[in-house]
Amino acid sequence: MKKVKIILLYLLAAFYFLMGLMHLIKPEQYDAMMPSWLPSHSLLILLSGVAEIALAVLLIPLKTRAMSAQLIIVMLLVFFFVIHIPQSVDYYRTGNENFTASIIRLPFQFLLIAWAWLFIKDK
Fold first, then answer.
1. Rounded to 10 degrees, what is the CA torsion of 37, 67, 111, 20?
2. Non-local CB neighbours of 15 within 8 Å, separated by 6+ positions
3. Residue 73, exposed/middle/buried by CB under 10 A (0-12, 13-18, 19+)?
4. Per-residue pLDDT tens for 31-42?
5. What is the DSSP annotation of 57-91?
6. How far is it between the farthest Cα atoms of the chain?
7. How many C-beta atoms lie closer than 10 Å to residue 21's C-beta?
8. Under 8 Å between Cβ of 81 and 109
């Protein structure tokens, strides 16, 4: 089981590192997800990418792992309630073709939360 958990740890770190990197490489992908009421979309996309990369790196050392996992969960919850749910509602109201994809993506937030939760109690 320990080997599986280590593999899951490195996969989670790689996932957030790559997702953070994508915010920096292709920020336009994320612009459409930004709620119109948030200011400075480009800056927020950049900062969220840097945050994801930092959290990915902080998952690796045992000393910072639990803190990083907790912050990942907070980030996912904030994104879920501030970005993903309002975006899905907006897609529904406007008949946007991305509505189905946005609904399918919502449960994955819970999977990612559970995945990060695995590393909160590591000692």
1. 60
2. 56
3. middle
4. 877 877 889 999
5. HHHSSHHHHHHHHHHHHHHHHHHIIIIIHHHHHHH
6. 48
7. 14
8. no
pLDDT of residue 11: 98
Residues 44-98: tens digit of each pLDDT? 999 999 999 999 999 999 999 999 999 999 999 998 888 888 888 888 999 988 8
Q: Let me know: does 41 contact 34? Beta carbons within 8 Å.
A: yes
Residue 36 one-letter amino acid: S
Helix (H, G, I), strand (E, B) or coil at 2: helix
Distance, CA of 49 to CA of 57 (rounded, Å): 13
Does residue 123 surpass a pLDDT of 70? no
Please, is 94 exposed, middle or buried when counting C-beta atoms within 10 Å of its C-beta (0-12, 13-18, 19+)? exposed
C-alpha to C-alpha distance for 90 and 64, rounded to whole angstroms: 37
What tens digit of pLDDT does each residue of 96-105 get? 888 888 888 8
* pTM for this prediction: 0.88
Instruction: Please report where in the chains the tokens 């909160």 appear, as a residue.
Output: 120
